[in-house]
Design goal:
This protein is α+β, with helices and mostly antiparallel strands. It is built from 5 helices and 8 strands.
Length: 171
């Protein structure tokens, strides 16, 4: 009996996890405009949770900007979600402007969205979404992570760009 239980546990742990639906949300961007995840339809979306006081977050952001600039015309966006609270949120817009980041920057001052996606609230935290489903999530940033992310985004955009298989003509 114990062996059967061990086999069942091993099988469950090795089975691929099913993609979860991405939970829609609405936040305000740094221009004061309401932005929802659903606004991006079938785009491939990278949500990056960060804060102005987070060193690894600041290290990751130039890579996200580069990826955004290279892929935005292909149905890709970066949603940069600042988790700075009400006290430090005033630093977000100047930081973004100074560094000339052009991706959408949203404010999650009350940590509502990060709590949905990452209850432990570790930063930076990246979520990759394709066709409304979470494809990958990743905590932290280390050199080389940007290459893996760019590869994944490229693969997802290639799949998105593929035409659906043609149905055989009916006789």
């Amino acid at each position: 009996m114990r062996t059967l239980f061990s086999l069942l546990v091993a099988a469950a742990l090795s089975a691929p996890a099913l993609a979860a639906d991405a939970t829609d949300f609405t936040l305000t961007d740094i221009q004061g405009k309401k932005v929802s995840l659903s606004d991006f339809g079938d785009d491939v979306v990278v949500m990056s949770f960060w804060a102005t006081w987070c060193g690894p977050c600041k290290e990751e952001m130039p890579h996200l900007q580069k990826l955004y600039a290279e892929q935005k015309e292909k149905g890709f966006t970066v949603l940069s979600i600042s988790t700075d609270d009400a006290r430090s949120a005033s630093r977000v817009k100047p930081f973004i402007m100074k560094n000339q980041y052009t991706f959408p920057v949203l404010l999650d001052k009350e940590s509502k969205v990060i709590t949905q996606y990452n209850p432990s609230k570790t930063l930076p935290y990246t979520v990759v979404i394709a066709s409304g489903e979470i494809v990958k999530s990743h905590s932290g940033f280390n050199p080389g992570d940007e290459e893996e992310l760019a590869k994944l985004v490229g693969e997802l955009l290639a799949k998105k760009g593929e035409a659906p298989a043609e149905k055989p003509a009916e006789k």
